[in-house]
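Thanks for the sequence, V.! I ran Sodium/proline symporter right away. Repeating your input here for the record:
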Amino acid sequence: MLAESSLLLWTVIILLIAYFGVVTWIGKKGRAHSKSMNGFATARGKVSPWLVGASFAASYSSANLFIGVPGLAYEYGTSVLWYTLGCFGVSWVGLLIFAKTFWRYGKKFGRVSTVPEWLGRRYNSKTLQVIVSLLILFNVYYIVGQNVGLATIFETVIGIPYFWGIIIGVAITILYIGLGGAFAQMITDGIQGLFMAVASILIFISFFWTIGGGFNVFGELTNQLNAVDSNLTTFVGVDGPYNSVLAIMAVQFLLFSFVLMPHLLNKILSIETEEELAPFTLSSGIVLFVISTLMVLGGLAARVIFPTLNSPDSAIPMYVIESFPSIIAAIMIVGIISAILSSTDSLYLGVTTSIGNDFYRVLAPVFKKNISQARLESQSVKVAKGSLIVVGLLSLYISLDRPDSLSILIQFSFSAIISGILAPITLGYFWKKATNYGAIAAVITGAGLYVVFTQFNIIENIYLAMFFASFASFIAMAIIGWLTATEKHEELVLKKSG
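Predicted structure:
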């Protein structure tokens, strides 16, 4: 551990203090843009599209790609690279397909702040908006995954106890998001995305002295993995979540759909003009390629160097410590910490803005008949910011019970959300019979079946569970849509999409 060297320990501590100081300062700078709900949630037009793109890639990556998936690669070998392939190739294609139409719909609907609001406007249904806002609460488990990743870094590298590592991460994230909202989140994430890209490139370069083999470094890595365990180099995994062709196809389906996660789609809503979509998607693609393809390889290299780690999730921290000069290792550790925070802040922002905008703002007029729009706007922002503390404490409590696999926990949370919203968003683009009743049925069917499949062990593979739950949601929406669509409704849809 770095804690064994006082020089390195204090280097990391000083860098972290400086880093936290900068993000808190950025949070204060963003206070002026976060007084309204739309400003707090999207900061539309206030951040360069290039930086928003880097922020998208950083939010996409998180502790999952920097800690969790490398941990799976350490445990199950090269079959995990199917996940890496999907992260850049399939997910980016999904972004290119969804981004423009989603942005155009958002523009037609007016100042849309969140994905639940987008769906509510698209289907003219406050009920749907509230239901999807409740579904987004599954992201609390995603936040727990980030907490666990951060605490693992602090514990493995610096020697800070797991509990205190969680508290530090939760406290600092709540502070700067509460101050600056989306402006602070996107600026800090954009910067973090660049740091993450540099760290990933350094991981790749290190193979030339940790693995050897010169330009045949990947061949040498394969040989050394095979010497540890021949099951680590199979095309399809012998064990684990990538143990069949069907499971691998389900992974690609999940990653194609992953760009529909609310904390990612909100980045599209922050783009001011259609022309800015091009630099946004290009920036997100470049940064995502570097992050997703290089860091995960470090998990494979760690299996060669440390074949008997107690926790696979500690593979990357241990690899960095042993493979780099001390000061560079300390800088990279801070970079990995920033990677974790880059998704944590997006998730906090997504959950809390949904609580304020899609739950409180929709339901408050039901109980407060004469509330003015100005007062409702002000109270919604206060509820969103206040819920940061509640969500933070809830995630902290759940994080105390460390999960067996950080990656599996994270993927459970976002798979539940995707299973519910995939059909309403995609069919809402082009299908005339996509009705509000069908959308509600799809959300309940998809998310409900996913939870049933996974919690009752009906389908143990989380990727297959999501695939079949999503498929069922499409069927439910199609049936209900055919039964409930009217000519008047179809005319309304055509008017909105025209």
